[in-house]
Specification:
Heterotetramer of two alpha and two beta chains arranged as a dimer of alpha/beta heterodimers. It catalyses: S-adenosyl-L-methionine + H(+) = S-adenosyl 3-(methylsulfanyl)propylamine + CO2. It is an enzyme of class 4 (lyase). The chain is an alpha+beta fold. It has four helices and six strands, in the order βααββββαβα. It has a single domain, classed as S-adenosylmethionine decarboxylase, CATH 3.60.90.10. Helices cover 35% and strands 43% of the residues. Helix 2 runs antiparallel to helix 3.
């Protein structure tokens, strides 16, 4: 049986109202709320205000990270949610961000990361037996 250790969701959100993604304060509120809604474990965060428009931010999680980069002049936000453990938490965080920003179009990719399975376990066992 193959198991993914992490789930990585990448989304480009188009048609976002510029007022929702222009100020670093709004980006901070968005990501911090997504962490709470998804019941993730925040370690630290960092945010930056661009001039004249846009903001970027990242939240380091015990589970991995959430990040956003915005171009309000284009109504665009790119979002990255990567979590290890319970994959539903990644979906909850991304769904919250999308629902809050209400884009007119979402281009999303979902990647399972760190696939492990019986073949990897067998390989590791054979290495250990040689030692």
């Amino acid at each position: 049986m193959v198991k993914a250790l992490g789930l990585h969701i990448l989304a480009d959100l188009y048609g976002v109202h510029p007022d929702l993604i222009d100020r670093v304060e709004d980006v901070r509120q968005l990501l911090e709320s997504a962490v709470k809604v998804a019941d993730l474990t925040k370690i630290s965060s960092h945010y930056y205000q661009f001039q004249p428009h846009g903001a970027t931010g990242v939240v380091l999680l015990a589970e991995s990270h959430i990040s956003i980069h915005t171009w309000p002049e284009h109504g665009l936000a790119t979002v990255d949610v990567y979590t290890c453990g319970d994959p539903t938490k990644a979906y909850k965080a991304m769904d919250y961000i999308i629902a809050t920003l209400e884009p007119t179009r979402v281009d999303k990719q979902v990647h399972e990361r760190g696939l492990i399975g019986q073949s990897e376990a067998d390989h590791l066992r054979s290495i250990l037996l040689k030692i």
